[in-house]
């Protein structure tokens, strides 16, 4: 856990950090608080009830989770450089201001692994097939 950030359930359907600000520091701290490994991040998102679509910039599990945490963001997208194992969250704020935050390694790992087919429990399409 990162000092100053903790996760607590705010809504039965979605967990969110204690209202971090929509700033680079706020987003970075909230992402770091999700876990220290991709598996921990996945477990945190699963406990939060988060789910998303593989290969979707705006429908990715991380983008959908972030949209719940920062409802004031007009849109949230995820982009990645899979070869380098890096990923970024892009949050669009009012007045056309774009906030681009590099995801910490555990979150970037989760994003790349999720798109590669791991963590089916976080995939809304896999949930629909299983039903």
- Strand count, sense and closure of the main sheet? 3 strands, antiparallel
Counted by DSSP, the helix tally is 5
Count of DSSP strands: 5
- The rough form would be described as globular
Percentage of residues in DSSP E strands = 15-25%
The ordered string of helix (H) and strand (E) elements is EEHHHEEEHH
Structural class: alpha+beta
Low-confidence stretches: 1-13
How much helical structure, as a percent, in the residues? 25-40%
Number of domains: 1
Question: Any idea what the radius of gyration is?
Answer: 14 Å
Mean pLDDT over the full residue set: 86
Widest sheet, order of strands: 3-4-5
| N- and C-termini, Cα separation | 35 Å
What does this structure look like?
It is a single chain. This protein is α+β, with helices and mostly antiparallel strands. Helix content is 36%, strand content 23%. A hairpin with a 4-residue loop joins strand 3 and strand 4. The longest helix is centred in the N-terminal third of the chain and has 11 residues, at 38-48. Residues 1-13 have low confidence and may be disordered.
Concise summary:
The chain is of the alpha+beta class and 131 residues long. Helices cover 36% and strands 23% of the residues.
Topology:
Blueprint: E1 7-11, E2 14-17, H1 24-32, H2 38-48, H3 61-69, E3 75-81, E4 86-93, E5 97-102, H4 105-115, H5 124-130
Antiparallel strand pairs: 1-2, 3-4, 4-5
Helix pairs in contact: 2-4
């Amino acid at each position: 856990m990162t000092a100053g950030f903790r996760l607590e359930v705010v809504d039965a359907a979605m967990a969110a950090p204690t209202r971090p600000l929509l700033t680079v520091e706020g987003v970075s701290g909230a992402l770091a608080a999700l876990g220290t490994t991709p598996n921990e991040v996945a477990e945190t998102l699963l406990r939060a009830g988060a789910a998303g679509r593989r290969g979707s910039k705006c429908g990715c599990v991380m983008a959908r989770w972030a949209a719940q945490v920062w409802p004031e963001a007009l849109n949230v997208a995820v982009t990645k450089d899979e070869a380098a194992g890096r990923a970024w969250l892009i949050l669009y704020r009012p007045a056309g201001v774009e906030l681009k935050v590099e995801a910490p390694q555990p979150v970037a790992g989760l994003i790349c692994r999720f798109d590669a087919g791991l963590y089916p429990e976080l995939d809304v399409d896999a949930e629909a097939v299983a039903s």
